Amino acid sequence: MKKNFSPSSTERAQQTLADSRWKQVVARDKTADGQFFYSVASTGVYCRPSCASRLARPEHVAFHVDAHAAERAGFRPCKRCKPDQLPLDELHQKTIITACRQIEATDHMPRLDALAAQAGMSKFHFHRLFKQTMGLTPQGYAKACRSNRVRENLTQGRAVMATAFDAGYGAGSRFYAEADKNLGMKPSAYRNGGARTIIHFAVGECKLGSILVAQSERGLCAILLGEDAEALLRDLQDRFPKATLVGGDASFESLVSQVVGFVEQPALGLQLPLDVRGTVFQQRVWQALNTIPPGTTLTYTELAERIGAPKAIRAVASACAANPLAVAIPCHRVVRTDGGLGGYRWGLARKQILLDQEAARAGQHKERKT
Q1: How far apart are CA 215 and CA 330, in angstroms?
Q2: Among 33, 47, 254, 302, which one is most buried in terms of CB atoms within 10 A?
Q3: Consecutive 10-residue runs of the chain (370 residues): their mean pLDDT?
Q4: What is the rounded CA–CA span in Å between residue 59 and residue 12?
Q5: How many CA atoms lie within 13 A of 110 on its CB side?
Q6: Helices (H), the chain
Q7: Between the CA of residue 17 and those of 21, 31, 57, what are the distances in Å?
Q8: CB-side exposure of 130: number of CA atoms within 13 Å?
Q9: How far apart are CA 321 and CA 317, in angstroms?
Q10: Which of 336, 333, 338, 340 is nearest to 362 (CA)?
Q11: CA distances from 56 to 6, 8, 13, 44, 79 (A)
Q12: What does residue 211 show for φ and ψ, rounded to 5 degrees?
């Protein structure tokens, strides 16, 4: 008669230790939540990988593809991590998204205590969670929504003052004061697609391919890289459809040479004013990018933490992708958590070249110092 032998505790422990999922359980990896669940035979419960409960002995652990599979195996949900419910992060995200929709639907900022009460939180906790998730305070988000409404209405040709009042401005003076900063030009000029705005530009060549440099009266407004000079010019025209573009200026050529030198050797620095136009959040990300020294990198997660918005990783990545000033705002110094390059608006090959050059020069500088 054939006997059935169950694995010994040592064999069960070895099987668990050899499973890649065990490392995620040990690390309490939140990114693994939802990918699998694990049960503990000694307690009769099942948990998320990120559960903060005391780590189980590996011989007592089994893995399950979903919560239903764990329950069919006879295990009950852990009362601490509540694996049968939505993850806390997802619940918080839904709460904040609901608040965002409410802010977007009104011309005036809702009271903070009203938003917090609707979310079932204290004002302090709601304010902190909102900033962590969105990268902006509720008031900052309301201002950004108002700026977006202004841009949309002006683009559609609406009258300037009608746009101001529709966006919730009670006084024209305040609207004009904020519009110049947010739009980068007078509202009437933005409404006309940048009409009467003069932008000097030139296209040259550098080690990274074609380069277009453009400058408004405020400073450099575009440094674009690519293979096709005509495509770069079309990109500039799309940004300022009614601006007066002036090319081939002899005095401007010297500035282009300076920018090309900087792109090829970023460690030299660029002592030129920048005309940086973007949302409040984008500008926060771009300012943080300029604190990353040449030869070093940050992950998207670290960059989000640096601006005080640890959960706004996707928004940070989008802000990097929207950067119009290649190298001058060094979004190429941001990489994925696993060390991969991630994305880059001007091509991953260029990003790798820039990082390699900066790392090499940083290494040479270190050798000279030692």
Answers
A1: 18
A2: 47
A3: 61 92 91 89 94 93 93 94 78 81 78 88 88 77 70 54 51 52 53 66 87 85 88 86 78 81 76 70 85 90 86 85 88 89 88 89 60
A4: 5
A5: 20
A6: 9-18, 20-26, 67-72, 88-104, 112-119, 123-134, 138-155, 160-166, 172-183, 187-191, 229-239, 250-264, 280-289, 300-306, 313-321, 348-369
A7: 9, 20, 10
A8: 25
A9: 6
A10: 333
A11: 20, 17, 11, 12, 15
A12: -140, 130
Q: Which residue has the tokens 């304010």?
A: 127
Give residue 137's Cα distance to chain centre.
16
Q: How far apart are CA 334 and CA 346, in angstroms?
A: 14
Q: How far apart are CA 39 and CA 336, in angstroms?
A: 31
| Catalytic center residues | 47, 331
Q: Quickly list DSSP for 306-331.
A: HTT-TT-HHHHHHHHHT--BTTTS-G
Token duo for residue 261: 């030198």
Closest to 106 measured CA to CA, from 114, 362, 339: 114
pTM for this model (two decimals): 0.54
**What are the Cα distances from residue 263, in Å, to 163, 208, 266, 330?**
40, 8, 5, 10
Burial class (CB in 10 A: 0-12, 13-18, 19+), 363: exposed
User: How close are the terminal C-alpha atoms of the chain, in Å?
Assistant: 76
